[in-house]
Amino acid sequence: MIEILITLAIVGVAGFILFKNVRSSAKGECHCSSSSSCSSSSCAGCSSSTTPLTIKK
């Protein structure tokens, strides 16, 4: 029984982390682990040289 609870806790934490990353990626935010490792080469959302996408109607 305790193994099932531990497994459910691990799956819950993993699901929360994935949901958080997908939500921040959808907003165009950087999803790097720390701001010091977030550079234009490793994270497109953090580089100042990229322009945001616009939808023309």
UniProtKB/TrEMBL annotation:
Region Disordered: start-end pairs: 34-57
Listed Low complexity bias regions: 34-49
Domain of life: Bacteria
Protein name: FeoB-associated Cys-rich membrane protein
Species of the source: Clostridium manihotivorum
